[in-house]
């Protein structure tokens, strides 16, 4: 019994040290964590390619090339759309300023009794002169860039490390798993393998649920934006829905694109506010209903636990804490299931 307690204390100490290291090293773990997540998602495809007698290195290169192509296609959709929307927004800006003068000022005078003077020509000149001199912003940003050089270099290194780490993780995936398998204590091997298989099953359910969320939110945004008559509803909806796998990124990107599209298409502010309402409702529905039900229920987590996990991991580990929240919660869920089974069969529970 003493040896068993000592072994348990050793494992607990190891887990605490590992958790502390992850917390302290979280700023530099970002590219490796992101590469590990994407490698885990892509590994089944690599395995399928190797089953067709392709060398694993070539299979990994093909999969990464496919991901790069998808990313390039996404940029080809977003950048021209954004450029067109911004140029049309600037062209329509004078009309917006004049419309604000004719509609907003009378309301302010009616509600507050304020006698405000509005020089539309001067405001137009201010906006246009600032827009035309936007190139001078870079000169003003140089001191900030110099003082934030470390952060910029760190971001650049993260972007460079991500594909490198992903390539080696995918190429050496089977070998790495085999080496980890050798480290499992032999007397715990069967139970540990069962736990790992359960974690893998839960993670697979998580991925299926996340794909369902992406498809459902793409349909929602594209359909509702089309119903309110917004141009570019289909590409904006697809982009907003496909990016929901990164928390808030899909909503922010889609909202930005849709707002620009609405401002260049509609002459009244109410239509722009309607677009904002669509994305506000979509974000609330996705966070409070869709993700908890399609992802949380698949991995066995209560909807409230899903919301708590997103907030807790985001607070502890920042952006990629949000990305890791549900997968890590799924792993903890499996651990809790086995821990509960052990507790119910232990003398601690059964002893009168």
Task: Describe this structure as you would to a colleague.
The structure is a single chain. The protein is globular, with a radius of gyration of 26 Å. Residues 133-142 have low confidence and may be disordered. The protein has helices at 2-51, 56-112, 120-132, 137-147, 149-171, 173-183, 189-227, 233-242, 249-265, 269-299, 303-317, 319-345, 347-350. It is built from 13 helices and no strands. α1 crosses α5 (149-171), α2 (56-112) runs antiparallel to α3 (120-132) and α2 (56-112) packs antiparallel against α5. With 352 residues, the chain is mainly α. The longest helix is centred in the N-terminal third of the chain and has 57 residues, at 56-112. The protein has a domain at 188-352.
C-alpha Rg (nearest Å): 26 Å
Spell the H/E element sequence. HHHHHHHHHHHHH
**Low-pLDDT sequence parts:** 133-142
Q: First CA to last CA: what distance?
A: 19 Å
Which of globular, elongated, flat, extended, rod-shaped describes the shape?
globular
Q: Total helix count?
A: 13
Record field, number of beta strands? 0
Helix content bin:
over 70%
Family: Belongs to the autoinducer-2 exporter (AI-2E) (TC 2.A.86) family.
Main location: membrane
InterPro entries: AI-2E-like
Transmembrane segments: 58-82, 151-170, 211-230, 236-260, 272-291, 303-336
